[in-house]
Amino acid sequence: MYDVRLDGVSKAFGEVEAVRNVSLAVDAGNFLSLLGPSGCGKTTLLRMLAGFVRPGRGEVYIRNQMVNDVPPFRRNVGMVFQNYALFPHLTVAENVGYGLVARKISRPERERRVEEALSLVHLTNFDGRYPRQLSGGQQQRVALARAIVIRPAVLLLDEPLGSLDRKLRERMQVEVRQLQRTLGITTIFVTHDQEEALSMSDLVGVMNGGRLEQLGTPAEIYERPATTFVADFVGTSNRLDGTVVGLDGEESLVQVAGTRQHLRIPQRTGDAPGVPVSIMVRPEYVELTARGGPGDDAPLFGEVRFSAYLGASVRYEVELGEGASLVSLRPRGIDGGGYARGDRVGVRIAPECFYRLAGEPRNRAGAAAGVESDGAIPDSFANGPVGEAGSDEGGSGVGESRRSGGLVPRIGDEPA
Ligand code: ATP
Questions:
Q1: How far is the CA of 280 from the centre of ligand 1 (A)?
Q2: Predicted TM-score of the model (pTM)
């Protein structure tokens, strides 16, 4: 059962199209994060749910009721703002009980519910303090208590943790999620912090320029991004542009643009020789091997341009050729002493870890120019049908990945 549903909702402020034709539904008890860069329309969407902004087009439903014309205080939603918006002249208990007074709840019932809400946010005994006598984290908890005390159908949180320091923010992420689970309350959380969105949510909606680019579970968003924007915005994405130069059963052979190196990837719908493709692989799947050592049979190779010690892991940037590079994240200690700038390394990626992105390759001209037949294409790939170059619209990019195992890893040759 849906608690929240948006049907084709749009909102423009003058020339600015803040939200464009967004449709989504959130099941009862689910936690949805709206994620996206500054100005992408997250807050406007949230404010349309709260009733502070009226949609220009489309319909907003809360628990099956169309609420476009229902004012905020009749919508049964609790909202927490980024700046908390506590009343400075009211005590903690008065702040939390404010919504109950407005709803004409009797005094004894009010006191009971305020006490219960303060206990849920671990602020029992803070009831007589004023906001100025509280830390930022405590003020945030008061704002949360004030939102949940009215037992709303939906909890709306607008970057509520934005102004907290990192440690406190992480603790509050856990607390908010625990509270949400305890109460089973449908929650929509706005953030521009991708880690926060991935770690807290049942569902993540990624927004860009007023549009909802993708709605999915954190794993779907991270591992199978629907668009190049999502791939770039969520996590570090390694994107390789290239051209299909051969097909072999379940695999395509892709020449990496700017290099003379080739990769085997599980074939995706729409690929044909000559078609430019963009492939994404997350840094944790990019394995490096020492050149010239045992196991030096990696399909790609390059030069370490940069290494950064991150404590638990080391981040390497490896240049494969002109304009083509990969970021590799290696757990510290896995690669012995690690690699230094200038080291030549082999690069290996399990085929099932590649994800073909829908949409235009970033450098279509470069990708096409990358096709130079240098005799390095294995025979099994050389006799595939010749397709029309330039058509890249075949796949949606979602849910199409076909797995294949037992691949021969070494293809390709040294860069010129
Ligand atoms: P941030 O993360 O910076 O808060 P956001 O994703 O929440 O950004 P919105 O606040 O929804 O983005 O703004 C979306 C666009 O609409 C922006 O270009 C913003 O300037 C514009 N906008 C928002 N509210 C108004 C308003 N009341 N009047 C005019 N323009 C507005």
A1: 31
A2: 0.76
pLDDT category of residue 323 using cuts at 50, 70 and 90 = confident
Q: List all residues 6 or more positions away from 66 whose beta carbon is below 8 Å from its beta carbon.
A: 59, 60
Share of the chain above pLDDT 90, in %: 40
Query: What CATH number was assigned to the domain covering residues 236-382?
Result: 2.40.50.140
54: its two tokens: 């009226």
Let me know: does 176 contact 33? Beta carbons within 8 Å: no
Position 201 scores a pLDDT of 94
Residue 324 Cα, ligand 1 centroid: separation in angstroms? 36
**Six-digit token string for 19:** 């939200």
In the chain, domain spans: 2-224, 236-382
Pocket-testing residue among 15, 22, 35, 40, ligand 1, by greatest number of atoms within 8 A of Cβ? 40
3-state secondary structure of 134: coil
Measured by CA distance, the residue closest to atom 20 of ligand 1 is 39
CA distance 272 to 381: 11
Tell me if the domain spanning 2-224 has CATH number 3.40.50.300. Answer: yes
